[in-house]
Amino acid sequence: MNMAKYKGDILELLYHNRSTYLSGQTIAERLAISRTAVWKTIELLKQQGFRVHSVQNKGYQLTGFPEEWDQDMMALIIKQSSYFKRRFVYKEVTSTQLVAKEKLLEIDEPFIVISEVQTAGRGRFNRSWDSQGTKGLWMTAVFRRDVPLQKMMSFNLFLSLAIAKTIRRMSGAEAKIKWPNDIYIDDRKCCGFLTEISGEAALIQNIICGIGINLNHEASDFQQDLAVKATSLKAATGHPVNRYQFLEELLIEIEAAFRQFLVLDFKDIKDEYGQYSNIWQRKLRYTEGTTVVEGVAVEILDDGRLVVQDEKGTLHHFMSADIEI
Amino acid sequence: MNMAKYKGDILELLYHNRSTYLSGQTIAERLAISRTAVWKTIELLKQQGFRVHSVQNKGYQLTGFPEEWDQDMMALIIKQSSYFKRRFVYKEVTSTQLVAKEKLLEIDEPFIVISEVQTAGRGRFNRSWDSQGTKGLWMTAVFRRDVPLQKMMSFNLFLSLAIAKTIRRMSGAEAKIKWPNDIYIDDRKCCGFLTEISGEAALIQNIICGIGINLNHEASDFQQDLAVKATSLKAATGHPVNRYQFLEELLIEIEAAFRQFLVLDFKDIKDEYGQYSNIWQRKLRYTEGTTVVEGVAVEILDDGRLVVQDEKGTLHHFMSADIEI
């Protein structure tokens, strides 16, 4: 008997009922299969790294997940998304962003690309991003929608708020946004993302958003110079996060942010965004192109630009500066 | 003797001195080759469709070009460009825009793609564009440069002005711009273009600009419903244009416009743009997304948006409307 065909369905039942126990009888009836098939499939799940707790007379409870991304769990999570239609899950790629850009040529629907390992992960300014397998979430989310060019300027602001909220909810850590779009905990970076776009000059058609989040790294996983600048949710709070639950929440949150982005202006979320910002009331160095300014951020404008006041009192406007914290 | 190797050099001398005659002796000396090689190469040029007029005791003059795009002439024209570094010339492609997007993945430099025929030429709103071989110019110009997203909104305005100017200079026809970026002569369209972009959300890296211009079509070349809406430089003026000279001038003009675009704002060219516009003082129908307005254009704003007043006096702002003329 090939149990792989029941795996997805049983996993779905166990995952959605993971706060309780489900009896073998209940599962068998719900799926109209034999109790033997249920039992064998649960053995298969265990072999594949799922932890299923079984208690006589109560039944089964899903209590743990494989260390590596599991294709069926991914299918289950994307099935719940009302926006993303397909997922591509890899053991190793150069970067999810590159894979997404290739897929883009063939696929019309919104999709996500996830990889256990990226051998050449890249952030803004072409900076490398250390993408250790199983400890983080390395994902590219591809949005397909006609968006007026001038609206795009606020996309990263909506998205960074969504990511910061997810991190707060899932870890309890006080995630902050370093304008425009890095996420910090305790002044150390735990998430970066890179949004790329393509389309017509006045109307963007594709948004390709690569997100890297350090989830379960130990502090000792960050080597040398990274150690003072990087953190993970676990390193910051002492508690690991469940990658699947995190991904599920993140997708819900970024879908919601995308829909907000389509109908709202940045000014509508400016106050909330401001409360998540970690750059207020401190002197920082801002670099945009060849402009370097040391100063204090005084305001984010309605269009998302940041206003920084230097020591002489001169105001500088930034669209997308690199800020050293 | 293989004369093909001298073709480019002799062509270059003849092309740059085409207002006069060059003796075989002069050509031979300038290129340090034999007079026999000069004579044989000129025979080759003639075989390939160039017209070279020769007069005893005066020498040679280039007076005509092959009907189809010639690779060596193209090399010569791109060699004069200070911006575009490479060219790709095809007999037939689906569209130069598609080819350019493929090349983009491998090539870092600015380049142009030209084809004699496009089997699936497309304009804005995915409208087909009839691309008859040898009668027009079907080209995609790829610009490579980091450009802040908010600057991109004016790109088409700078470019359309460059194209309109080239058409006026090369044909004498009073080319006008139908905002934002079609070129008309006598209320008939002779040129359309489509700008696509890709890059980061705040910083565009690639501008892929597809331009189609009807040059030497006869009025009778436009079938049925197109006949009342389309024209060519020749149909409008009665005179054919030299495709190579036109291309040379066009490249110079769009390079200049691109450099202007990088350092100026639209408001700096707004007055000149306004003088080229054919939409003033007439009631037209404007469609942008689901918005349809009948009204009269009253102003172009500094950021390139068009202000249209409807019959009730209400003002509407358009970023990139489709206008029926």
From TrEMBL, chains A, B:
<feature type="DNA-binding region" description="H-T-H motif">
    <location>
        <begin position="24"/>
        <end position="43"/>
    </location>
</feature>
<dbReference type="GO" id="GO:0005737">
    <property type="term" value="C:cytoplasm"/>
</dbReference>
<dbReference type="InterPro" id="IPR004408">
    <property type="entry name" value="Biotin_CoA_COase_ligase"/>
</dbReference>
<feature type="binding site">
    <location>
        <position position="118"/>
    </location>
    <ligand>
        <name>biotin</name>
    </ligand>
</feature>
<dbReference type="GO" id="GO:0016740">
    <property type="term" value="F:transferase activity"/>
</dbReference>
<feature type="binding site">
    <location>
        <position position="189"/>
    </location>
    <ligand>
        <name>biotin</name>
    </ligand>
</feature>
<comment type="function">
    <text>Acts both as a biotin--[acetyl-CoA-carboxylase] ligase and a repressor.</text>
</comment>
<comment type="similarity">
    <text>Belongs to the biotin--protein ligase family.</text>
</comment>
<dbReference type="InterPro" id="IPR045864">
    <property type="entry name" value="aa-tRNA-synth_II/BPL/LPL"/>
</dbReference>
<dbReference type="InterPro" id="IPR004143">
    <property type="entry name" value="BPL_LPL_catalytic"/>
</dbReference>
<feature type="binding site">
    <location>
        <begin position="122"/>
        <end position="124"/>
    </location>
    <ligand>
        <name>biotin</name>
    </ligand>
</feature>
<dbReference type="GO" id="GO:0009249">
    <property type="term" value="P:protein lipoylation"/>
</dbReference>
<dbReference type="Pfam" id="PF03099">
    <property type="entry name" value="BPL_LplA_LipB"/>
</dbReference>
<feature type="domain" description="BPL/LPL catalytic">
    <location>
        <begin position="70"/>
        <end position="262"/>
    </location>
</feature>
<keyword id="KW-0804">Transcription</keyword>
<dbReference type="GO" id="GO:0004077">
    <property type="term" value="F:biotin--[biotin carboxyl-carrier protein] ligase activity"/>
</dbReference>
<dbReference type="GO" id="GO:0003677">
    <property type="term" value="F:DNA binding"/>
</dbReference>
<dbReference type="InterPro" id="IPR030855">
    <property type="entry name" value="Bifunct_BirA"/>
</dbReference>
<dbReference type="GO" id="GO:0006355">
    <property type="term" value="P:regulation of DNA-templated transcription"/>
</dbReference>
<keyword id="KW-0678">Repressor</keyword>
<keyword id="KW-0067">ATP-binding</keyword>
<dbReference type="InterPro" id="IPR036388">
    <property type="entry name" value="WH-like_DNA-bd_sf"/>
</dbReference>
<keyword id="KW-0805">Transcription regulation</keyword>
<dbReference type="Pfam" id="PF08279">
    <property type="entry name" value="HTH_11"/>
</dbReference>
<dbReference type="InterPro" id="IPR013196">
    <property type="entry name" value="HTH_11"/>
</dbReference>
<keyword id="KW-0436">Ligase</keyword>
<dbReference type="GO" id="GO:0005524">
    <property type="term" value="F:ATP binding"/>
</dbReference>
<keyword id="KW-0238">DNA-binding</keyword>
<dbReference type="Pfam" id="PF02237">
    <property type="entry name" value="BPL_C"/>
</dbReference>
<protein>
    <recommendedName>
        <fullName>Bifunctional ligase/repressor BirA</fullName>
        <ecNumber>6.3.4.15</ecNumber>
    </recommendedName>
</protein>
<dbReference type="InterPro" id="IPR036390">
    <property type="entry name" value="WH_DNA-bd_sf"/>
</dbReference>
<dbReference type="InterPro" id="IPR003142">
    <property type="entry name" value="BPL_C"/>
</dbReference>
<keyword id="KW-0547">Nucleotide-binding</keyword>
<keyword id="KW-0092">Biotin</keyword>
